[in-house]
Amino acid sequence: MTASANANPGVMTAKELTRRILAKEELLILDVRNESDFNDWKIEGERIEIVNIPYFDLLDGVDDALARLPEGKEVLVVCAKEGSSQFVAEQLAEAGRTGVSYLEGGMKSWSEHLEPVQIAELDGGGALYQFVRIGKGCLSYMVVSGGEAAVIDTPRMTGILESFAGEQGAVIKHTLDTHLHADHISGGKALAERTGASYWLPPKDAEEVTFSYERLEEGREINVGSTTIAIEPVYSPGHTIGSTSLIIDGKYLLTGDILFVESIGRPDLAGQAEDWVDDLRSTLYSRYKGLSEDLIVLPAHFGKISELGENGKVMARLADLFRHNPGLNIQDEESFRRTVTENLPPQPHAYQEIRQANMGKIHPTEEEQREMEIGPNRCAVHDK
Amino acid sequence: MADISVNVTVDCKGLSCPMPIVRTKKAMDQLEAGQVIEVLATDRGSLADMQGWAKNTGHQYLGTLEDGEVLKHYLRKSRPEELKEAANYPHTISNEELQSKLAASEDIVTLDVREPAEYAFGHIPGAVSIPLGDLEARLSELDPEDSIHVVCRTGSRSDLACHLLAEHGFQYVSNVVPGMSAWTGPIGNQ
Fold this sequence. Notes:
The complex is a heterodimer.
Chain A: E1 10-12, H1 14-22, E2 27-31, H2 35-40, E3 48-52, H3 63-67, E4 75-78, H4 83-94, E5 100-103, H5 106-112, E6 115-122, E7 126-133, E8 138-145, E9 148-152, H6 158-167, E10 171-176, H7 188-195, E11 198-201, E12 214-215, E13 222-224, E14 229-235, E15 244-248, E16 252-256, H8 273-287, E17 296-299, E18 316-317, H9 318-324, H10 333-341, H11 351-358, H12 366-373
Parallel strand pairs in A: 1-5, 2-3, 2-4, 4-5, 9-10, 10-11, 11-12, 16-17
Antiparallel strand pairs in A: 6-7, 7-8, 8-9, 13-14, 14-15, 15-16, 17-18
Helix pairs in contact in A: 8-10
Chain B: E1 8-12, H1 19-30, E2 36-41, H2 46-57, E3 60-67, E4 70-76, E5 92-94, H3 95-103, E6 109-112, H4 116-120, E7 128-129, H5 132-135, E8 147-151, H6 156-167, E9 172-177
Parallel strand pairs in B: 1-2, 5-9, 6-7, 6-8, 8-9
Antiparallel strand pairs in B: 2-4, 3-4
């Protein structure tokens, strides 16, 4: 990966960058996108140092950049798609700077990279995997058991999940969305169509959808594989009116966008913050209180890089979240209302169009879908 | 929207960054100050980059039109003297004063001396468009007895226009300062 003394910069893949961030390795990033895109969303990591100089300020020479990139540190140049970072990296290398590489596919690839991590082995030889979309903060899941698989909160990049299931020798039988997503395009329906699986969506979030689906409701258990790993839906409204949590194998609680490791879901992305505050509060403060404290919470997002644990896993015991998550420790109802309705972070980029696409009302091209998804997820109340 | 006359068109369709900016910069280097460039691009990222590049170089980003898949960016090469705020013509009027006169429907003429492309992307409703370079040849379109308020982007081209009008016997001429760069009143683009 490291460029040698010749004038050719190296190329780093999103996978390698992910490995370095998870291993907490030191890396200096030169982000050459324009300032507004940079301020909106950038690569983060515990030991990542990042400098922003737009490529169009470096057309006449890279002296300004060299002055801000201390010798001896490895430098990764990053832009939106790759072209500008390669252009700048080549100039840096030509100027004699060593240890320069650029990010293959730029922030586009960074946004789409999925890192699979095994969360647990399930009874009867099954396994539960989490797919960490590290650049965007989205988390998807796959339950594999007895040659069958179920995918939960499927991202747009369905090919990765399909081949992963194939490697496990499993056929995808179910795809589920815990709610109608507003921050990313769901691949759930598309993946189900391609693999002949059933697509499950909470009916209260599906009132306007233009396609057929299975009703994800309490009382309807979904079995994966002959060993029957049970997926048990628990109605838990608040982020959306249909939001439904899932209990897998009696041990794992998939909370969707209701409860995160360091935050809680925001109720405003479907335009009904005030109406859904009470639902959100009763889900978090009564419904979840009635569940076993030993459940392992697996959310659909992370907001901060600090939420990534060992190997990038994002998970926590429900009991620990009741103690430490700020969103679960607001005793006064009025303060809770203010926290989840006032001073919320900006809404995700193009969230209304994303909801329309997830209802099947609009059919953006792949390139348009990419554009719509650019940026961080911002589904939690405490995200910046 | 009014016609936008441009001095040069740069075709960057199908190119991804950094090429649209690299080509725009090269073309801009060949232009005279005050001239307008049109850049055709299909890379959506070119929009924020054009704005950022113009801001950092001092060139004037006028606006962008969408024509199907194609983004048409318009930029104007700044004159060095526009960057300083010089208003030597003695009679000036603030943006706010002009705005209240217009709101009160006073009998005045607003004369916009910017380039047609700048005018097209937003101007004071009812303003007469005569670019500074054409003003001397088109004086007959104006009445020397009218109360004329001359506006440009920052007050410097309009300052030159005020001098020119005064030399030709126009008596009631005011320079609007700072001009469209800080205009918060009504905007038309018809």
